[in-house]
Amino acid sequence: MAVVAGIVIIFFPFVRALAERIRPRALDSTVRDELQALRDDLLAEVQQTRQEISDLSERVDFAERLLAKQRDADRLAPPGPR
Description:
Elements: H1 2-22, H2 29-76
């Protein structure tokens, strides 16, 4: 029993320090505002990137349609003299 009490007495400060370290802390208002600004900037950049990807996708679709139309025209053209 004395051994258990000794172990508890020795490890109690370590356990308390660990608990204090992993406990969530309140953020300072300036830090919170800065994080919110960074988050807003990041979301704006993600939205811009999505728009650019959408525009590029439309351009690729258009180019594919033009190429397909050109191939169809080549196949349907009357054979020329060789």
